[in-house]
Amino acid sequence: MLNRSLAVAITGYQKYISPYKGFCCAHRVKHGGISCSEHVKQALLHHGIWLAIPDIKQRFHECKLAASALNAGNNAHGRARGRERNRSRRQEKNSILDNCDCCIDLIPSESCSPLEAVGGGVDACSCTPW
Predict the structure, then answer these.
(1) What is the spatial distance between Cα 59 and Cα 67, in angstroms, rounded to a whole number?
(2) pLDDT of 80-113, one tens digit each?
(3) Which of 81, 87, 88, 96 minimizes the C-alpha distance to 130?
(4) How far is CA 52 from the centre of its chain?
(5) Model confidence at 117, in pLDDT bands (50, 70, 90)?
(6) 3-state secondary structure the chain
(7) What is d(CA 73, CA 69) in angstroms, rounded to the nearest whole number?
(8) C-alpha dihedral, 1 to 16 to 54 to 50, nearest 10°
(9) What span, in angstroms and rounded, lies between the C-alpha atoms of 61 and 66?
(10) Of 90, 98, 103, 116, whose CB has the highest number of CB atoms within 10 Å?
(11) Most confidently modeled of 2-6, 76-80, 97-101?
(12) Cα(29)–Cα(61) distance, rounded to whole angstroms?
């Protein structure tokens, strides 16, 4: 019963929270496959909470390593790329604001699609989709 309740809670997180947080699971980005939340949910349902705990700890450790590797890779590509990306985002934001004076700054992250990042990819005043 506890395992199913936890799985339902994880499903709620996946459906209602994760799409709006603006970033994706580092393990999934680096290695492909399922996200950590899906991995944990499957481990709970297949093995039960007590047998799943070591597997969950291992997965989170691997995700932390993947995040570190991805961050190191991003830093290695140089700061110029980041400055160019920020300049592009500012220009995009300014062009949206020129067309609609009630828009909110909702620039999607690079690691997720605009739909995941802003819950539908449409700004606050129903201007054109990203």
Answers:
(1) 12
(2) 555 666 666 666 655 544 444 443 443 444 444 4
(3) 96
(4) 24
(5) very low
(6) CHHHHHHHHHHHHHHHHHHHCCCCCHHHHHHCCCCHHHHHHHHHHHHCHHHHHHHHHHHHHHHHHHHHHHHHHHHHCCHHHHHHHHHHHHHHHHHHHHHCCCCCCCCCCCCCCHHHHHCCCCCCCCCCCC
(7) 6
(8) -10
(9) 9
(10) 116
(11) 2-6
(12) 15
Say which residue the tokens 């597997």 belong to: 55
* Structure-token match 């899906």, residue found: 38
Encoding tokens for residue 66?
Answer: 């993947």
